[in-house]
TrEMBL record:
Descriptive protein name: CAP-Gly domain-containing protein
Originating organism: Jaapia argillacea MUCL 33604
A GO CC term attached to the entry: cytosol
GO biological process: cytoplasmic microtubule organization; post-chaperonin tubulin folding pathway; tubulin complex assembly
GO molecular function, one term: microtubule plus-end binding
Classification via SMART domains: CAP_GLY (SM01052), UBQ (SM00213)
Keyword Lipoprotein listed: no
Primary localisation category: cytoplasm
UniProt-listed InterPro entries: CAP-Gly_dom_sf, CAP-Gly_domain, TBCB_Ubl, Ubiquitin-like_dom, Ubiquitin-like_domsf
Alphabetic keyword roster: Chaperone, Cytoplasm
Sequence ranges assigned to domain CAP-Gly in this UniProt record: 175-217
Amino acid sequence: MSGTLTVFVRSPDTRSERRFDPHLTIAQLKAKLELITGIPVPNQSISLLNSESDEQVLAKLDDDSRPIGFYGVRDFQVLNVVDTNPSTSFTGQLTDVSQVEKFELSEAEYERRQDSVLAYKQRHQLGRFAPKDATTKPEAETPPEVINSIKVGSRCQVESSEEDLHKRGTVRYVGETKFATGVWVGVEFDEPFGKNDGSVKGERYFECRQNYGVFVRPNKVQVGDFPVEEIDFDDEEM
């Protein structure tokens, strides 16, 4: 047994693609998973699922002395991590907004504010406030060969205006949409940098977790070998 295993790690608050040495013991794996999922080692219950689309439980990784490879883990299977005592670690509460008090602002009050996105667009003549002769269409500027090179399932990096921030993910959709004209690329980010869950205005184009999905123009997408940027864990420091 050699090399590394590429698997998806899933917990109530996280989802990411990770690489692990198959010789790691389950105890060592749990130490790494605590930093990834936030679930304390004693609370972790790890199940091996066949894939993200197949929830069949293949094994319970419950023997801390066994290596990962003992359980026959294969690339792109899922390690589903459950918190057996969430009351002590607040697992799942990061995504529960039912108890959050909502701030509401009337449309008239919003329009009067000078620190809003609306005011910014008005000052800079953007969007619907642009001059009527501003007819530049981003989709028309993207050559067909660029669009054709973007395939569903490809790893990619999306252009970001923030310095040193690499928004990486996987292409999940390429084509026309109902929310705007032209070709759009649907991307599932590795981290919650997105704006949706793969649906816009009630129309679903692909499936992902809330705030992990985004739609961008093809000229904003660079396809290539963009691995998930991981925390560098040193086995000797565990």
